[in-house]
Design a protein that fits this description.
The protein folds into two domains: 36 residues; 84 residues, Immunoglobulin-like. The longest helix is centred in the N-terminal third of the chain and has 32 residues. β2 and β3 form a beta hairpin. The protein is an alpha+beta fold.
Length: 125
């Protein structure tokens, strides 16, 4: 009789410890790697509105309420950024180098929460 009670207690403790062990693993995993997120990719290019030439070295800020990324256009005027998906994504293009490659105006837009490829044409100031 005592052996049966000990076996039942042993099984009960193994199950309880198993549940706590699995829960501990999940908490540790989430603490180390975070909650999985969906990401949105925004790609595009920036060109001179009059000459249609690619504009290198412009700052492109892609941001939402909870995430942001800032990249520069490459020598072909292209940029690529990704951030955590939200209901709306804002893009701002700024000519930070001033008259080094011409002085250009700013570009601002808001996009919906999907992957985007955009083409931006900036006028000279």
């Amino acid at each position: 009789m005592i052996m049966k009670i000990l076996k039942l207690k042993s099984r009960f403790y193994k199950r309880v410890l198993g549940v706590f062990g699995a829960a501990g693993f999940l908490v540790t995993f989430q603490a180390c790697y975070g909650t999985p997120q969906n990401f949105v990719s925004v790609q595009g290019s920036v060109k001179d509105k009059d000459t249609n030439e690619a504009l290198a070295g412009l700052q492109v800020s892609v941001y939402s309420k909870t995430d942001s990324v800032c990249v520069a256009t490459d020598e072909n005027g292209k940029f690529d950024g990704s951030l955590i998906a939200e209901s709306s994504i804002n893009i701002k293009v700024i000519d930070v180098d001033g008259p080094a490659n011409g002085s250009y105006g700013e570009y601002n837009t808001t996009l919906t929460n999907t992957d985007h490829i955009i083409e931006v044409s900036l006028p000279k100031n």
